[in-house]
Amino acid sequence: MKQLLFIVLFGLSIHLFANDxxxxxxxxxxxxxxxxxxxxxxxEINFAKDNKYMVRLKVFSGDYVGEFLLTTTLKNxxxxxxxxxxxxxxxxFAFQHIEDCFTGFFKINKTDNSLSELDLYRNPIYRKTEDFxxxxxxxxxxxxxxxxxxxxxxxxxxxxxxxxxxKQTDSLVSLKKKRIQEVAKRKIVSSKEWTVKxxxxxxxxxxxxxxxxxxxxxxxNDTWILTNxxxxxxxxxxQLDLKSKNNQLLLFAENLGSIPPNTAAISIDDDDLIxxxxxxxxxxxxxxxxxxLDKPKK
Length: 298
What we know:
This protein is mainly beta. It is built from one helix and 20 strands.
């Protein structure tokens, strides 16, 4: 059985108080994550009792934010061991195995410019290959947090860029949460359905009438496969893998264009038959088509 070993080394930095206390706010960056993004860290350490410290950790990048709670123990005056890791919240998706990145202990160091630094010496983690190949209902790989890279340490005191990035992330997350609330408020119209014989299907979406600036988002089961997409006469193609028998494709109107309602043509091709549907949505309702997978029995 193949196994994967991921080893991470990263740190957080801050000016400590005059008494070198661990308590306070810490910031840092994970560079070169597996999905080619930088992930930023915002942590607050509070003293609990004896040598115990609680670490509230925020991880964010672009439109992702995760909040976690670590319990730690200070040993040998310069090592902060991680005892437990708890997920508080993640949005808009949950990273698989993100807990693997927060094991072992933080080593307390001093940098050349007299800043204090926490470097995480992570325990080796062994997992099966299939632990990293799960897919969601739309056939996309579920992201894993494979943090195996070096760390850039920065001072929170002079880090204005960092604060701006955090505000941008919080703003994008707020917009996404607002969209979820808006989807929940709109009436779902579900009178159309189509049965396919194969798991792999091809969708095509286009404006079958006059191009009037219609902007839509398309949700397949629990996954947004298109967001803020402007419909054109030219067909846009999406390939999907069906993982369940009953599936729902939802057309969400981002606007009404110049000729209400928001209308889109969507074809479904399972390499056997092609069926085209006209879906209409507006600011009060979203129309769906039910896609049923009925594979022939062998």
